[in-house]
Specification:
alpha+beta; 5 helices; 14% strand
C-alpha cells in the first residue's frame, strides 16, 4: 500500500482533444477512470458512479496551471485474508489526504502498525514522520476507521448471485475457498 504500488501512471492517447505530453501530477483514484474517459469523449456520466471526472485537472495541466485540489481522499485497501472466510480480516490500508500518506498494517497479536509520510518534504515517502505529527495520525486513523466500518455501496439491495458448478470450479482454480 506504499507509493511504489499505488502510484501507477495512466496514459491516454487522445490526439483530437489534447496536445501530446500533458502530465497531471495529482493523485486520483481508479474509480475516476471511467468518469474521466466519458467526460473527455463528451459522453454523459454513468449514474451512481463513485468516481469523479478528472477532466478539470487534465485541462489545467494542458494550460500549464496547477490542478484544482483533490475533493476526496484516496484509499488503497488490501485484505491479506480476503477470500478466506475462516480467517479474521487483516486489512492493510493506505490513505492519501493532501500531502500525507497514512499506512496501517496489521501486526500479529497487537495494535496495527502505523506510518505517516509527508510528500511535501519527502516525495519518495521514505521517512516516517508519525512521531512528529500525532494530530495528523489521529485524524487519518479516524478516517481509516470510518472507511473500514462503512459498508460498500454495492452491497445495498444487491441481488443474490447464482453461481453454477462451472463458475465454482473456476473460482476454486483461482485459489478461492468456496463451498
Amino acid at each position: 500500500m506504499y507509493r511504489e504500488t499505488t502510484h501507477v501512471p495512466l496514459i491516454l492517447s487522445l490526439p483530437f482533444r489534447l496536445e501530446p505530453g500533458v502530465t497531471v501530477e495529482r493523485i486520483t483514484r481508479n474509480v475516476d477512470i471511467w468518469p474521466t474517459i466519458l467526460d473527455l469523449l463528451g459522453l454523459p456520466p454513468m449514474e451512481g458512479a463513485d468516481g469523479r471526472s478528472q477532466r478539470p485537472a487534465i485541462l489545467a495541466a494542458a494550460r500549464g496551471e496547477a490542478p484544482p485540489p483533490a475533493e476526496e481522499p484516496a484509499y488503497a485497501h488490501l485484505d491479506r485474508t480476503w477470500g478466506q472466510r475462516s480467517l479474521d480480516p487483516a486489512p492493510t490500508v493506505s490513505l492519501v489526504d493532501g500531502p500525507y500518506r497514512y499506512v496501517r498494517t496489521p501486526l500479529r497479536g497487537g495494535a496495527p502498525g502505523e506510518e505517516l509520510f509527508d510528500t511535501s518534504r519527502d516525495a519518495r515517502e521514505l521517512a516516517d514522520v508519525s512521531a512528529e505529527h500525532p494530530d495528523v495520525v489521529e485524524r487519518l486513523r479516524e478516517m481509516t476507521d470510518r472507511y473500514l466500518e462503512s459498508e460498500p455501496t454495492w452491497a445495498e439491495g444487491a441481488p443474490a448471485l447464482e453461481i453454477d458448478e462451472m463458475q465454482l470450479q473456476q473460482l476454486r482454480a483461482l485459489g478461492y475457498k468456496v463451498p
